[in-house]
Structures are given as C-alpha cells and as structure tokens.
Amino acid sequence: MGSVSPGKVWGDIHSTRRAGGLRRTAGGRRSPMIGSGVLAALFPHPKPSMDTKRPVADTHIHLWDPGYLTYPWLETVPAIAGSHGVADLQIQEPETDRFRLAQIVFMQAGAEDAEAILEARWVNALADGLDPRITGIVACAPVEQGEAVQPVLEDLASMPRVKGVRRLIQDQPAGYAATPAFAEGVRMLPGYGFSFDLCIHHHQLGEVTDLVRRCPDVAFILDHIGKPDIAAGTLDPWRSDLKALSELPNVVCKISGMATEADHANWQPDDLKPYVDHVVECFGEDRIVYGGDWPVSLLAVKHWGHWVDVLDDLTAHLGPAAQQKLYFDNAVRFYRLPA
To answer: What CATH number corresponds to the domain at position 292?
Structure first.
C-alpha cells in the first residue's frame, strides 16, 4: 500500500446519506427530553452577536442522559455521573470572554454497545430540536468485527451529521487494534465518508501507529494527544512515539483532554506547556485541532471555557492565523463541517 498526501485523505472523504429518524427503546426507560419546550424556553440557542469573541468549533463534546441510555463507565466517576445536556453546556459558555462556541462535534460517550446507534440518533435529534450548532457526530462502531461492521456503518450513514467513528482502544489489551479484522473494519470507513478517532493511552502509540500505516486511505484523529502521563511529568517515550506517528500524513492530533491527565486539583498551565509545544512541533499548525472534552473535563477544569482560555495562552506565540486554524479552520476541514 502506497502513501497518500494529507490533502487527498482529508479532501476525498464523501458519502451518500439516507434520511433516518430516532428510534425509541422498549421497556421502562423514559424518552429523552428532545425538543422540550421548557428547555428551549429557558436555554434558547444563543443569538448571533457582534461581539469580539472568537469562534470555536469544538471537536470533542460529550452529552449523556443516564435516564435514557446506559453508560457503565459513569459509575466510576460520580462527580460527573448525572445527566449533561446542551442546556448545561449553554449555561457555562458565557464564562469565557474570549471565545464563543460556534460549532459542536459530538463525541460518542460510551453508551453500551447495543445502544450505540440509538446514541447517535438521539444526538442527531438534539441537533434538530435544541442546538443546531451540533454539526458533527462521531459515533461508536465495532470495527474490530471487520466486514461484519457494515450494517452499523450503513445505519450511521443515514445521518448526514455523522462524520466519523470512534472505537475506544484505551482500556483494551495489547494487540486489540493490531488484528487483521480491526484494520479491515477501519478500511471500510472512507467508503462512507467517515474518519476514525483514536482514543488510547500513551503506551499504545506504537500499536496505533502501525494501524495508521496499514490504513493509508483512512483519515485518523488522535484524541487527547495520546494521553501522556502529565500528572507524573513524564515526557518519554511519549515524545518519541508521538513523533513517529506524526510522520504519517493521514493522521492529525487533537489538543484535548490534557488537564484530566494532569493532577486534577493542582495542575498549572506550565505543567501542560511542554506537551503542547511538542504536539505543535510534530504536527505543525495545519494538523492540530482543538477539543474541549466537556463534561469529562470538569473533573479538572472549572467550566467549558476554562480549558480553551488556558490553551489560548499556551499557543499565543503561534499568532492569530495559526490559532484560527487550531480553533476553527482545521476542525471544519478534518470533520467536514459547514464553513
């Protein structure tokens, strides 16, 4: 398999979509409050303003409603285990005086596998009824099943907002993403116009670098800069492993999830600086993108705008043009969002 240019990988992604609606679950679960008149009245979509706030296309926002879907992992994080919806996000947006949230890419939030399609349809309906700024969805799909994942991809492709797939690798045993079936499933994504988000721990960088190399026609996004051990201040071997990954043209890096890899209660911006600087050095200003990781980020930050303000300070030396790419332009390109 030959290599391809970044322009080809990111520019050739397209797909034919079919319209689809929201399915409801059977049993005792309540329906989600989609299109709720009460919520819409209390928390209307912010009107455009002529203020000086810079637009952000946040490529990593989670939403969840444990009363509607099942999220087993939330049992381990009681601080954020309650429902987090668009109204909760909207309340926090004014806390930053630098940025306005212009577009949202929903990132699959760890609902049970059996509910993965329903999760995507739920968020698609939220975008229709409560917050049209949700212009992209990255859904879950069992790519490790190889060609057997096709029916799931077909279902996801019926929703035009679905831009990509994420299958969590971070807590899987060594070799999970190295199987022929995993690569086979991932290679199906471009046929549907989908990219693949890589969510790993730093020790898995070598494994996913091999995956990216074996799938040169797939557009990959590395989430959370590969989750280095920021709390311990450890840079190596993350630093060299990230450099090796960055040498492949079909992968970009999301600067996100960093405060949650640091000491939640005591981190300082300077703790993050060497990691941010290395990412920029490796990937350059054209292959980095901002992600907020809200509301998981609330384990370590005060509100949605806290992290974007910190990153703004850490990247100020890059200049306005590079920051415009980081916060907006690259997101539009990587996730095929409205310009």
So the answer is: 3.20.20.140
Gap between the Cα atoms of 24 and 174, Å rounded: 36
Q: What is the 3-state secondary structure (H, E, C) of 42-97?
A: HCCCCCCCCCCCEEEEEEEECCECCCCCCCHHHHHCHHHCCCECHHHHHHHHHHCC
Does the predicted model carry a pTM greater than 0.85? yes
Confidence of residue 51 (pLDDT cuts 50, 70, 90): low
What is the residue-averaged pLDDT of the chain?
90
Nearest partner of 200 among 173, 180, 219, 233, judged by Cα: 173
Q: What is the pLDDT of residues 246-289, one digit of tens each?
A: 999 999 999 999 999 999 999 999 999 999 999 999 999 999 99
Residue whose C-alpha is closest to residue 20's, from 192, 157, 166: 157
Residue 102 lies in a domain: yes
Beta bridge partners of 103: 57
d(CA 167, CA 198): 8
Dist. CA 203–CA 234, nearest whole Å: 12
Residue with tokens 């045993």: 173
Distance CA 68, CA 137 (A): 18
Task: Establish if 118 belongs to a structural domain.
Answer: yes
Q: What share of the chain is helix, strand, coil (3-state, %, to 5)?
A: 45, 15, 40
The answer to whether residue 197 sits within a structural domain is yes
CA atoms within 13 A on the CB side of 35: 7
What range does the domain containing 271 cover? 52-334
Higher-confidence position of 251 and 18:
251
